[in-house]
């Protein structure tokens, strides 16, 4: 049995976790040697009771072979803490996963990541803001981390994908049970622009007790977590608690004081979470510089591109901060139909780019 096989096997045994694994490794040294231990030796170790010791003794190697075969069929990599691709941010949290199942790829770029979470039954405001902030942060080459749940999570992933940014989805189930099922195609899209990850074995179902564990990985992968909308009992608040325990920043969007759906986010602000109203609030708190993301094959400078006087006039109305069409109409004093036409021309010339919510910003600083 290889080290990877042994770690996958230990991950298949309920209730071991990284803390108990650490105690076992202190005694046996190698994960492979744990499966060769006698029952009496195992049960004598602090924290390893009768049930876990019995499960280790009775464990069948074919379970590992089945797990590895199942993951290979879906092109899923299994990472351990010793692998270079294992996320650096995750390595530093208490109770880092024994193994991490990955569909897609994790790169060094993902060390700059922000989690965006919120209610599954969010309002239009919450959904729109999740997509907007995800798009703006992804445009600054920051990876967006979320849980692929309905509502805010889905919008956060889509916001990053719309501007071809990187995003990571953390599941509360195994890859043979994508949840929710309607996000199966979204999972494929995410894997092409980042990664879908899980610490759960392939056949693990999306049980309620799995999601707090999932939430700790969302915060663990991130430098900070943004709560866009959450009620007082929302699972998003669990993610915020984990973020604080892990030394991550917690951000929250203010919501209406008479909306129960915003009560949790507003309470976080009262407790000291950073109130944010724009993307720059997050970048400043994390000490990240604002950068202009250049697309492939984009000319180096704006001066190299030919444009009409009218296009140039509208271009001067657009800044590095996202602007809506209505704002451009007001600022330029042009009819909305003309602004829409000029915006399209500026996009085709790659002078500006569109962000979620029909907002536009310059492609160049």
Keywords:
365 residues, alpha/beta, Rossmann fold, Arc Repressor Mutant, subunit A, 3 domains, 9-stranded mixed β-sheet, 17 helices, 12 strands, 13% strand
- Extract low-pLDDT stretches: 292-304
Element-level helix/strand string: HHHHHHEHEEHEHEHEHEHEHEHHEHHEE
User: Strand order of the main beta sheet, please?
Assistant: 1-2-6-5-4-3-7-8-9
- Under CATH, the topology of the largest domain is which? Rossmann fold
Number of helices: 17
How many domains?
Answer: 3
CATH class category name of the largest domain: Alpha Beta
Helix content: 40-55%
What does this protein look like?
The protein has 365 residues and is α/β, with parallel strands linked by helices. The chain folds into three domains: 1-70, 5' to 3' exonuclease, C-terminal subdomain (DNA polymerase, domain 1), CATH 1.10.150; 104-285, Rossmann fold (3-Layer(aba) Sandwich), CATH 3.40.50; 302-362, Winged helix-like DNA-binding domain superfamily/Winged helix DNA-binding domain (Arc Repressor Mutant, subunit A, Orthogonal Bundle), CATH 1.10.10.10. It is 44% helix and 13% strand. It has helices at residues 3-12, 17-28, 31-34, 39-43, 50-57, 61-73, 88-91, 124-139, 152-162, 184-192, 210-220, 235-245, 263-270, 279-285, 309-317, 325-332, 336-348; strands spanning 77-80, 99-104, 113-117, 143-146, 167-170, 194-198, 224-227, 249-252, 274-275, 323-324, 352-355, 359-362. The chain has a nine-stranded mixed β-sheet, with helices on both faces. Strand 5, helix 10 and strand 6 (194-198) form a beta-alpha-beta unit. Helix 8 packs parallel to helix 9 and helix 15 (309-317) crosses helix 17. The longest helix has 16 residues, at 124-139. It is elongated.
């Amino acid at each position: 049995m290889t080290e990877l096989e042994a770690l996958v096997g230990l991950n298949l045994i309920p209730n071991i976790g990284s803390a108990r694994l650490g105690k076992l490794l202190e005694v046996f040294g190698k994960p492979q040697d744990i499966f060769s231990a006698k029952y009496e030796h195992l049960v004598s170790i602090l924290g390893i009771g009768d049930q876990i010791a019995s499960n280790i003794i009775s464990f069948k190697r074919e379970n590992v072979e089945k797990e590895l075969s199942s993951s290979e069929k879906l092109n899923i990599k299994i990472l351990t803490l010793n692998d270079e691709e294992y996320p650096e941010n995750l390595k530093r949290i208490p109770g880092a996963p024994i193994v991490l199942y990955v569909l897609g790829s994790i790169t060094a770029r993902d060390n700059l990541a922000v989690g965006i979470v919120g209610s599954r039954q969010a309002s239009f405001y919450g959904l729109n803001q999740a997509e907007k902030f995800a798009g703006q942060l992804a445009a600054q080459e920051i990876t967006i981390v979320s849980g692929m749940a309905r509502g805010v999570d889905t919008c956060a992933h889509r916001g990053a994908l719309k501007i071809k940014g990187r995003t990571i989805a953390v599941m509360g189930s195994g890859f043979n049970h994508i949840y929710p099922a309607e996000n199966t195609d979204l999972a494929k899209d995410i894997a092409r622009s980042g990664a879908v990850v899980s610490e759960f074995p392939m056949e693990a179902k999306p049980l309620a007790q799995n999601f707090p564990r999932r939430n700790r990985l969302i915060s663990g992968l991130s430098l900070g977590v943004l709560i866009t909308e959450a009620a007082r009992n929302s699972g998003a608040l669990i993610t915020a608690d984990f973020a604080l325990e892990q030394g991550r920043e917690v951000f929250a969007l203010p919501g209406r004081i008479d909306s129960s759906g915003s009560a949790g986010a507003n309470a976080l602000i009262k407790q000291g979470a950073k109130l944010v109203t724009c993307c720059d609030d997050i970048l400043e708190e994390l000490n990240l510089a604002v950068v202009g993301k250049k697309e492939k094959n984009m000319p180096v400078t704006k001066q190299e591109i030919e444009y009409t006087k009218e296009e140039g006039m509208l271009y001067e109305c657009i800044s590095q901060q996202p602007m809506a069409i209505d704002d451009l109409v007001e600022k330029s004093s042009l009819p909305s139909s003309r602004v829409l036409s000029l915006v399209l021309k500026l996009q085709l010339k790659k002078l500006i780019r569109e962000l979620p919510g029909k907002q536009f910003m310059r492609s160049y600083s």
